[in-house]
Amino acid sequence: MCGSELKNLPEGVQRVAMALQAAGHPHAPRMLDDACRTAQQAADVLGILVGQVAKSIIFRRKSDDAAVLVITSGDRRVDEKKVEAQVGKIGRADAEFVKTRTGFSIGGVSPVAHATPPVTLIDRDLLRFDVVWAAAGHPHGVFPLHPGDLQRLTGAPVMDVVQEPVRS
Question: By three-state DSSP, how is residue 12 classified?
């Protein structure tokens, strides 16, 4: 993407596009006609499995008020106890906290280009897929990547941070 193309994108998507470009990521953000505020909405619009959606969940660390980003597979739920074992006590983050710390609104939180770098953990279950899709700084913006690229782009560890799937 060149500078003129970026100017037509929302500010958050511009930040993500520049961060991806600077990191040498081969795929620029893509704007969708429909908002993808949930993993299921994103999967439906993209025609992928819900597990291929890389959800960015923000928590608030209680000891220092730091943002904690957990990037997890769209078909999994974060296990807060497992996250706390890694980063200390956490609590829910409200919309204002998310916007202030990340620069993104809930539903568009990207794994990269945060206003303030968060403490980040990556769900190992994302490694089940060759390609996952992440939010690109806006509820209509997404970009594809290999799950291993999440670690390269964020520098975050890959670990078990989710609840055990319910077996039917």
Answer: helix
Q: Copy the structure tokens of residue 123.
A: 């769900």
SS3 112: coil
Q: What is the torsional sign of CA 73, 40, 36, 80?
A: negative
- Say which amino acid occupies 128: R
CA angle (101, 89, 165) in 5-degree steps: 95
- What's the confidence (pLDDT) of residue 167? 67
Tell whether the model's pLDDT for residue 3 goes beyond 70. no
Amino acid identity, position 29: P
Summarize the chain as % helix, strand, coil (round to 5): 35, 25, 45
Q: Which residues contact 44 (CB under 8 A, 6 or more apart)?
A: none
Per the structure block, which two tokens stand in for 60? 């608030």
Contact yes or no for 78/135 (Cβ under 8 A): no
pLDDT tier for residue 4 given thresholds of 50, 70 and 90: very low
> What's CA 33's distance to the chain center, in Å?
20
Instruction: Centre a 10 Å sphere on the Cβ of residue 93 and count the other Cβ atoms it contains.
Output: 23
